[in-house]
Amino acid sequence: MLLVGFAVTSASTAPADAQPDSLLADVVVIGVPGLRWSDVAASPELTALVDQANAGSISVRTAGPRTCPIDGWLTISAGTRARVSESAGECPALPAANGTVANWQFYLDQQRKYHTDAEPGRLGALGKDLCGFGPGGAVATAGKDGSVSKWWPHFDPAMLAGCDDAVVDAGALPTGAGRAEAVKMVSELVTQAREQDRWVVLAGVAEEAPGAQREALVAMQLPPDNARRWLTSNSTRRPGLIQLTDLTATLLSDSAPGAPIDGAEIHPTGPLHTDAAAVIQNRLDAKERFEQPRHVVLPVVLTLVAVQLLALGWYLLRHSRASRRTAVVTLLAMGGFFSAVFLSTATEWWRWPRPGVSLYVVTLGISALIGTAAYAILRRNAAVGVAAVAYLVLLVDGVLGTPLQLGSTFTQGPVVGGRFYGFGNSTFPTLAVATLVLAGAAGNWLVPRSRSYAALAVLLIGGVAIIVDGMPGWGTDFGGVIALTPAVLLLAWFTWRGRVTLRAVLGLGLTGFAAVAVLAIADYQRPPQNRTHFGTFVARLLDGDVTDVLIRKLELSLGYLDNPGGWVLLVTVFAAFAAALWPQRVPSAAYRQWVNASPLNRPALLALALCGLVAMLLNDFGVLLPAIMIGFVLPLLVARLVDQTHDRSTHQATPRGKP
């Protein structure tokens, strides 16, 4: 089913707005660390340029915890994310250049130290007749040995006559006095470059200062091709958004292909711009959309947890009908949160007054609505209803190209830059839980009628989720497919046969691996600019440079255990695994009764545990993935146990012969 789905849709996943090869034949990239859309709004000169440009924002995320100017320029040089800066302290000064960039070997050593997979000097080695201006321009255009042949310490438009392309360091903007004057000088640089009949790309390339608020910075391309539109690239697939490595790909657009880079050539897409004021307001709104979720998610979760604890306390004290229903609904609302984080995006809360407060209220409101509606309609099966909502929301969102993901509280957004399209690390646990809970419920309902039909239902529900999760252009989730496929197959086998053997486990594992491998190889066959994470991984595997990627992901995964909170999560995760494997040892009669109440309750728990374990071992989120799964499953399970306890006590209290 997975391969059939890929064959049907792969032809339609290539971006529709392909860019002509000659559009950026001669380009000047003007990089300005810290250039924000608020600077554009405050500058009449830059505002005037917006009316003459394709516009957007640029993610300046590199391989480190922050992006200082040296990290940004090295990333442009390498075409993949580089790292030099530490998480604290002042940003390192840019190196001097006099025929060779000073300390070049140190920058190369830092990439090996941090396993970034970056090769500074790639742009200079593969580029055409490339010129650099300013310290950052020297870093960006240097060859692999750090040498710079055509470089000047300051921008001189007359020198562009001897260049095919050029990279200009306009200097970091001061954070206090003098910022307005510096912004005005940037606009003058753009005007001078345009007078040389060049395409000009103006872009922020780094954060302006340590500890500064991180956001997607300014990106403009002048002049536009035919009319003013939004900038994008195949690496982000989001109108109005590009990333640093797209600048490298654009400069190399008509050069001989070399080693894979993380970016893609920028091009315009989407509707025409109306006016500069509307464009600037759109970008300022986008800033709120990308920034607020990081601050709101914790208050929302803490509010829901506090309400649950209060409701459960009331129920334990009173055991009344009202207290029981309140406890169940609040638990279901916690489950509804995992859909609300995405549905809230549809409300466009970032356009409302006080966006952060609006997002907080909207997310809580949708969570409560889902929990209340599920209980009102389905009663004892309300948990299945909550899971079904999450399942349908993510399937529809995936097929539509994940418009609800970007800017939601469960995705990292362009500031982090971990994933610009498809299902991210936090989305997958929601889909996995929703899929396996729904598949288990469907199987339980059909097993008394036919085990074969029940197994087919599990495969259908799970197979659709796997297709949407893994399909290039939809979920595009390489690791998620690897984790979810064996879990679905295990649950389907349990449903069909009623037990599982070692031979079956090996066969299921090989089947899942084969499905993922074929999908990845099929994606690799597409043109490099249209490949997703699947094809890119195969390309790097064949090129022999995948080791650094795997080491870096392992380090990120283990990094979550650098504090006591990470170890608490790990202990919690393994306790949950143990509860799934040995339910008879769990000190809860209600839980043990529920496990034995239906034939697929325990197999569904085992499938969830398997999925969480594989995801934890393979993903750079590590222990956080199964922890998120537990955060979704646990309130649904407790809500069912509370209702189950009430049903049992009511039945026992009913006199014989009474209805």
Features:
about 650 residues, alpha/beta, Alkaline Phosphatase, subunit A, 8-stranded mixed β-sheet, two-stranded antiparallel sheet, 24 helices, about 55% helix, about 5% strand, elongated, disordered N terminus, disordered C terminus
What top-tier CATH class of the largest domain fits best?
Alpha Beta
CATH architectural designation of the largest domain: 3-Layer(aba) Sandwich
Shape call: elongated
The count of β-strands is 10
The overall number of domains is: 3
- The CATH topology assignment of the largest domain is Alkaline Phosphatase, subunit A
Q: Give the mean pLDDT.
A: 86
Beta content comes to 5-15%
Rg, alpha carbons: 27 Å
- Going by helix content, strand content and strand pairing, the class is alpha/beta
Widest sheet: strand ordering:
4-3-5-1-6-7-2-9
Q: Can you give the helix content as a percent range?
A: 55-70%
* Largest beta-sheet characterization: 8 strands, mixed
Number of helices: 24
CATH superfamily of the largest domain: Alkaline Phosphatase, subunit A
The CA-CA distance between the termini, in Å, is: 48 Å
Explain this structure.
The protein is an alpha/beta fold. The chain has three domains: 23-273, Alkaline Phosphatase, subunit A (3-Layer(aba) Sandwich), CATH 3.40.720.10; 293-420, no CATH class; 422-642, no CATH class. It has 24 helices and ten strands. Strands 4-3-5-1-6-7-2-9 form an eight-stranded mixed sheet, sandwiched between helices. α7 links the parallel β3 (130-133) and β4 (151-152). The radius of gyration is 27 Å and the shape is elongated.
